[in-house]
Amino acid sequence: MRSDTVRAAAVQIAPDLSGRAGTIERVLNAITEAADKGAEFIVFPETFVPYYPYFSFVLPPVSQGAAHLKLYEEAVSVPSPETRAVADAARRRGVVVVLGINERDHGSLYNAQLIFDADGTLKLKRRKITPTYHERMVWGQGDGAGLKVVDTRVGRVGALACWEHYNPLARYALMAQNEEIHASHFPGSLVGPIFGEQIEVTMRHHALESACFVVNATGWLSEEQIAEIHPDPKLQKGLRDGCMTCIVSPEGRHLAEPLTEGEGMVIADLDMRLVTKRKRMMDSVGHYARPELLHLVHDMRPATPVRQILPSDDDDRENEFPTQREETADA
């Protein structure tokens, strides 16, 4: 039976820019540290494994080839030894883990979010539906099948990445499935201070509008890593600040001091009774909704470039669709 209180941890750490092995090690160490502090729900930054493609923000497309190919080589397949290692850690410590990865699916990369339940089960793999600006040179698009809330040991969990939160219909799709804890993440160390300010506004607003808890993790780059990504001091300015690791209640309040620089964790206890307390006043998908006036159509079919029709299906289709002669006769 789920407890009325869930301890959550939002992790702000730097990746290992050399590749996925080092970053996965950091993930596993952070799971251990957070669990030792009593955390039951742990969120990591956007595409943390192997690392966010910072190169795409500061390099012109003609110069990105080598860095993009390296990301292909270090990206994560699902399933893989890396995902199994995280699943094993979640099971051993009895924690729910939300991890951002660069997912490789044959010849394409995707911004993916993985939700592992406390028994190690991968409850959801979803892909960012629209990569943002420079990211479109790196990742493909996700689909509506990933806009899903899943039941976990700590409650109903949904997830979005970065500027997906600026798509109100994507957020509403999760709200309509009654998410109780929203896992979100951003790259961090990007754009500048204004990015962190925008993240805070967005996280607090979603918490209020959806009447759920928001656990948000942003990444971090050291000065050495920034210099490794690009040597130009002018461009390096775009790889600093922009961090807002935080945990927000359904009433829009920070439950702990946000982390805006350096590595660390934000840890807070979520009083799950606050979900009902907030929804009693304003339930955006219940008594405060007007579906006869406004409603969302959510296509949850997985997008695929090929739809295979087996021979037995052809037989059914011959009976399902009238021939041209039959159509003429009916007319």
Automatic annotation (TrEMBL):
Which residues lie in Basic and acidic residues bias regions?
319-331
What Pfam families does the database record attribute to this sequence? CN_hydrolase (PF00795)
Reading the lineage from the top rank, the first entry is Bacteria
> Residue ranges of the CN hydrolase domain?
6-272
Mention one GO molecular function: nitrilase activity
> Matching Gene3D superfamilies, A to Z?
Carbon-nitrogen hydrolase
Q: Where is this region: Disordered?
A: 305-331
Family of this protein: Belongs to the carbon-nitrogen hydrolase superfamily. Nitrilase family.
Please report the name of this protein according to its UniProt entry: Nit6803 family nitriliase
- Species of origin reads Jiella pacifica
